[in-house]
Amino acid sequence: METRATRFGLAAWSVLVIAFLWIPLLVIAIYAFNSSNIQSWPIPGWTLHWFRITWHNQEARSSFELSLRVGALTTGIALALGSMAAFAIDRFRFFGRESVSFLLVLPIALPGIITGMALNSFYVFAGLGFSTWTIVIGHATFCVVLVYNNVLARLRRTSASLVEASQDLGADGWQTFRFVVWPVLSTALVAGGLLAFALSFDEVVVTTFTAGAQSTLPIFILDNLRQGQQLPVVNVVAFFVIVVTVIPVALAQRLTRDTGVLRRGATAAVPTE
User: Fold this and answer.
1) Cα–chain-centroid distance for residue 200?
2) Residue 213 φ then ψ, to 5°
3) Which helix (H) or strand (E) holds 189?
4) How far apart are CA 199 and CA 217, in angstroms?
5) How high is the pLDDT of residue 73?
6) Nearest 5 degrees, angle CA 254-CA 89-CA 256?
């Protein structure tokens, strides 16, 4: 039986964990509004000056645009490959099925530096020049897993009898997908896509090995921290990375609480010929 002391202890531990994770991020967010170019506490004043400086910084803007472009392309690839793999694993039984599932999930468990080094070696071996697509391929290796896990979990919680009932009522493949499969999987796909975009947007290790001369926002931050230049601009860029990452993750977390049942009701009619 759960005692009051147990509940208090769990609540206190949860607060400590959240504080450990979020206080450093909040400090960086506060420094983005620091009127001084020196990080000190308490901060002497508040300003939006560094936001204007960052907006007119061509390197920061190009890095931001590249991060958005890579994130969008990676998300599209992850949605296509991840959903197809989830359907294959859930609907079909074949030799090596569990091994395929293991290989799909493995990249998310490997350190990013290992994946980046492996991809970098492959690009050199194949004679491929570094480009936006080499970054996208690197990010897609682990972003596919997020979509795959979300879609597979939703499929396993969805009764196959829904599809069978649709087919029994005379619906073709497109009608079954539109009126049965899509309403069930829509939130899982959107949540997986949001998580894939967030992970791609703030990935630094794989990008380092697959970008060549190009620079995404995490690489911009890393380079300027290493050189000790433009620290106020780095704080602003870090603030934007935090915001752009937190919003998709929060939305995805909210969507994954959805059970995925048909919103039109269990008795929704399936069009027939």
Assistant:
1) 6
2) -85, -10
3) helix 182-201
4) 13
5) 92
6) 5
3 state SS of 202: coil
What pLDDT shows up at residue 177? 76
- Asked if residues 67 and 216 have their Cβ atoms less than 8 Å apart, the reply is yes
- Containing H/E element for 101? helix 97-109
CB atoms within 10 A of CB 99: 9
- CA dist list (Å): 155 to 96, 196, 259: 20, 19, 11
Q: For the residues 214-237, what does the mean pLDDT come to?
A: 76
CB 192 within 8 A of CB 146: yes
Distance CA 29, CA 8 (A): 30
| 33, 42 contact by CB (below 8 A) | no
Smallest Cα–Cα separation from 77: which of 146, 18, 136, 8?
A: 136
Model confidence pLDDT, tens digit, residues 246-270: 888 888 777 766 554 444 443 344 4
Q: Are 260 and 150 in contact (CB under 8 A)?
A: no
Q: Quote helix, strand, coil % in the chain, to nearest 5.
A: 75, 0, 25
Residue 39: CB atoms within 10 Å: 13
Cα–Cα dist 219/104, whole Å: 27
pLDDT of residue 118: 84
Alpha-carbon distance of 134 to 50, in angstroms, equals 32
Structure tokens that stand for 162 in this block: 């829904």
Q: What is the mean pLDDT of residues 127-155?
A: 85
- How do residues 52-70 score in pLDDT, each as one tens digit? 888 888 888 888 888 888 8
Half-sphere exposure of 132 (CA within 13 A, CB side): 12
